[in-house]
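Quick note —
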Amino acid sequence: MPHLLNVWPSVSRQLASSPRVLLLFDYDGTLTPIVARSEMAILPDETRRSLSVLAALDRFVVGVVSGRGLLDLEAMVAIPGLVYAGNHGLEISGLEMDYVHPEAPGFEACLADVADLLEAELAEVPGLVVDNKRLTLTVHFRNTPDSFETQVDSAVVATVAPYVQTGQMMLTRGKKVVEVRPNLDWGKSQAIEKIRRECVDNPLPVFFGDDQTDEDGFAVVQDAGGLAVFIGSTRQSTKALHQLESPAEVGQVLELLARLD
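Predicted structure written out below.
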C-alpha cells in the first residue's frame, strides 16, 4: 500500500485533470489526533486554514463524514461552506441539504432506553462515557483501564442483545469504542454516495479515514474510480489503496491540494 506523499506526483496529476473533486474526511483520528476525551479533539489551526481555502475553490467540494452527532461535528469544525455528515451519515447538511434518514428518528426512544440501561450497568467503571447522540449511541472507554475492556464489551453486548435479536439495533466497534446504531442499510458509504449525487457534476471522490467504520466508504470511493486513503500504520488491514501515517500528514496533503495546478 503506497504512502500517498510518496506517490503524490501521479496522484496530483489525476486530481488536477478532474474538473471537480469531492474531498471527504473522517474527523477523529483523521483531521485530528485521537485524544482522551472527544471534546478535546480540536482541529489544528493549519488544518482549519487549509480546509477553508479548499472550500472556497470552485474545483473542490469539501466535507466531513463522522460518527459524531451533526451539531457536535458542525461546532467542532465550524467552517462555512462544508458538507457535514453526522451519525455515520444518518444526518447531513450542506449543498442545500438538510437530510435526516427517514427511519432514523424512530429509533430515538430505544436508544435513550439503551443509554439509561448502560449508564446503570456500567456506573462503576472508571473513565467510561455513554454518549447518546440521538440517532446513534457510543460507549467510550479510552480512559478506562484495560482490565475493564472485556467487562465493558460484554455488558454492551448483553444489554443490546434483545434489540439486536429483534432486528432493531446493531453493534459496531472502533478504537476504544462500541457503537449502538439503528439496524439500517445506511452508513458512510451511502452518505458519500448521496453527497456525490447532490453535486450533480459527478466529481472525483476522495475519502480519508482511520477506523473500521470508514472501510465501506473506502470501497465505494474506489469503486467510483476515486481515491481512498487510510490514516494509520501500513501493518493494519484496510480496503484503502493509499495510506498516510497521521493527521499531521493529512495536514500536509491539504496544503498540497490548496496549491494544486
